[in-house]
Amino acid sequence: MLKKIINTILITSTIFTISSFANSDKKIMDFNKETVTELRKLKVYKNPAWASKIEFSNKKFAYFSSPKSMFEFYFTEFKWKPFGAKTVDDLESIYVTDFKTHEVIDAKKAYYIYGSRKISPAGDDLVVFKTLEDAQNFKNKENGKRVFRFSEVSNGLIKLLNGRM
User: Fold this and answer.
1) How far apart are the C-alpha atoms of 119 and 85, rounded to whole Å?
2) Which of 59, 149, 138, 58 is nearest to 96 (CA)?
3) What angle do CA 122, 68, 136 make, to 5 degrees?
4) Computed from CA positions of residues 106, 112, 116, 121, in that sequence, does the dihedral angle turn out positive or negative?
């Protein structure tokens, strides 16, 4: 009897923990069918595997159709003005979606693949992964050229992806 109670408690706590993580992702990427991306005016729900989001210190936020679009916004300070942001410190949190698991992750801790065969709704793009192992595996399988960290992604790379070089 005691064993059954302990097993029930363990199973219940595991389910609660898993659902808490799932719900936290939903709260972070809390878009609906009407949510439109900031730069390209696309519906976020149509391509959630590519979704990105910036939250500002004043609790405003902006969605993006892909990591490339998020970086394009990030590198263009005058676009921050409608959100009340003046410095990079006003960009409180940046989220991207792991391409493999669709988990919402901290953009500054992610790995970005340049040059793969995968194309986002915004065209040539950076494919995102939470782990270096997943990023390397994807790079090798999908003809990727290079793995970047957040701090290594440059405005020049984003312009290249957008065909502006």
Assistant:
1) 30
2) 149
3) 110
4) positive
Residue ranges of the chain with pLDDT lower than 70? 1-27, 165
Per-residue pLDDT, 9: 39
- Kindly state the tokens that stand for 145: 């050229």
Pairing mode, if any, of strands 111-114 and 146-149? antiparallel
Q: Does the predicted model carry a pTM greater than 0.90? A: no
Cβ atoms of residues 67 and 50 within 8 Å: yes
**Tokens, residue 101:** 């698991």
Q: Would you say 75 and 158 are in contact if contact means Cβ atoms under 8 Å apart?
A: yes
Cβ burial 12-34 (10 Å sphere, 16+ → b, else e): eeeeeeeeeeeeeeeebbebeee
Residues 6+ apart with CB under 8 A from 44: 29, 31, 35, 36, 37, 51, 63, 65
Would you give the DSSP letter of residue 74? H
Residue 49 tokens read as 């595997």
